[in-house]
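Record pair follows.
FIRST:
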Amino acid sequence: MKTHITVALAGGLLSSPFASAAQNAAVPAADRISVFKAPLVCPAAPQIGCGSASKPILLDLEKQPGVAEAWLNRAGTIIAVLWKPDSNVEAQSHVAAELKEDRVTELEGDSRDQAVKDFLSGKGWYHAAEVDRLSEEEAGIIAARWIRRVQAKAALAKDKAAGLERAISESLRKDLTGETAGQDQNPNRLENVSRKYLDQEQLKLLSDAINKGVRALPNER
């Protein structure tokens, strides 16, 4: 995904699936869980899942009859569906068929068993309402990458670089989590938040850095 300084980007804390209910309900049985291989790794930050891509899928899943909860693992490679106790085979088959349209396929055998075990461990899974944490992390990674590109060509004071990184990260976070959706967007907002920290020549360097895209280039992180 490429952007530039005048165009909006389009499109944390780990959660335990059972932490909030640990004292009130038993951990669900493995047969109430289905796990699916998902292509939801973040292109800009391949160490995490993509919050903006996964959120609509997870929210849609939780609207389906028979689905109690939907979760994404931190890596963005697996979706876990917790079925309601009264869920039937027909409802589950319907959900699996719909997920195939998003290139999400059900795991079976040893792969399924390992994924379910990981899910039941309660470590590093994000509920539909929490994947914005991943988007927040992605925004920080992209902002830091752009700042490093500028710093490779121009010296920036430490406090200015830190302030600029925070400002850009916050702007990107709003884009990635949908906070700016449906609003009158200022196409120059990245430039505007950067003017506090950069002179005109440095702004051009930042524009160049953004135009190189959000993904890491060779020898970047």
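SECOND:
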Amino acid sequence: MTRIISTVTISAAIINFTLNLILIPLLSTIGAAISTAFTQLVAAIWLYILVNKHDNVKYELPKILKCIVLGILFYLIALLVEDFALGWRLIIKSILLVSFFFFLYLWNFYEEIELVSLKGAWLKWKNLKNFSRNISEIKFKQDT
């Protein structure tokens, strides 16, 4: 398995380097981002195929696809506001970040147990007066 991962990683590095040589002169930092994103996607698909030949791992591909599609869409929206003033960019991108998880909820991404856990976390952490106590409980749980 280590040999497979090493082969994919080294191959991905070569692909990324080659694409960077081509795309950076044409598109600058966007070219580097495209090169890296494409290389990571190819490496992930390649690893998925090779690993499943050895162990039949059940990935939640529809959920992964939802995250990728939504992430790409939100990234493209974020690109549209790059020329805005810094304050507006921060506000819009913050809204996009929060909206990401909300849209995943609307898209039935979360399982019931995850929603229950998120609700519990919200109830525990929403009151900032209890912040110190909540932190100390985390430390206590780690020590045991």
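COMMENT: DSSP finds six helices and no strands in the chain.
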